[in-house]
Amino acid sequence: MRIRFQSDGGVGYFPGLDGPVIVDTAHLPPEEGARLERLVGAADFFSRPEAADVPAPGAADLRRSTIAIEDGGRSRTLEVIDPVEDSALHALIDALREAGKAARNH
Fold it and tell me: Which residue(s) pair with 5 in the sheet?
């Protein structure tokens, strides 16, 4: 499974410091790859509409996350706006943010 994750917007957003994260679960330690794949499944990612959340009228400085996943012959891109109400989707986004931090620290 190949995952591309990117966040933008929000208070204190600096475009040059928050580039996309690309994760291929086949290249991760087995436990970590399996965890991400479980989170994708728990979030029912491939069945969700492409825009999961709509900002409230007048909302500003919201963080937007874009998740694109390819798995076998399936692919989907999903845009999500914080705050994320769905706990399974929130857990997936948190894990992808952690992966991004780890990648930037290496």
Answer: 21, 67
